[in-house]
Every structure is written in C-alpha cells, then in structure tokens.
Amino acid sequence: xxxxxxxxxxxxxxxxxxxxxxxxxxxxxxxxxxxxxxxxxxxxxxxxxxxxxxxxxxxxxxxxxxxxxxxxxxxxxx
Length: 78
Hints:
The protein is mainly α. The chain has three helices and no strands. 38% of the residues lie in helices and 0% in strands.
C-alpha cells in the first residue's frame, strides 16, 4: 500500500511546546512505507498458501495491522 500524496509537498510546523498528534493514519503509514515495512515483511515472512488466499500479500496484511494498531484496534476479529 502506498500513500497517494507526494512526500515533497507535506510539511509540519510546531508552534506549541507540547504538540499533540492529530494527523490521522497518514504519517504512520507513510513512515511504514518509507522504512520499507511491506518489502521487509514480504522478504522475511512466508505464509503457507491456503485456498482462501491467506498466504497472499503478507506485506499488505501487516500494513493493515499496523494501521489498525495505530487507530486503536483491540482485535482483528471479523
């Protein structure tokens, strides 16, 4: 998963000594993208393929888990 905005047009300025993040998931997911999280997971994690596609796209699945954790998810039950 890649962010849809160019990083070069994003900037941040803090005018408070105690800033509180309120930017949503975009910074978290962009950091994961810049760190190569999806690529690393795809290289290191091998899931045995199942008939339901459980072994497909482990990098994207981990990105979804990271996004859920950052958003405060407490379970992955469907």
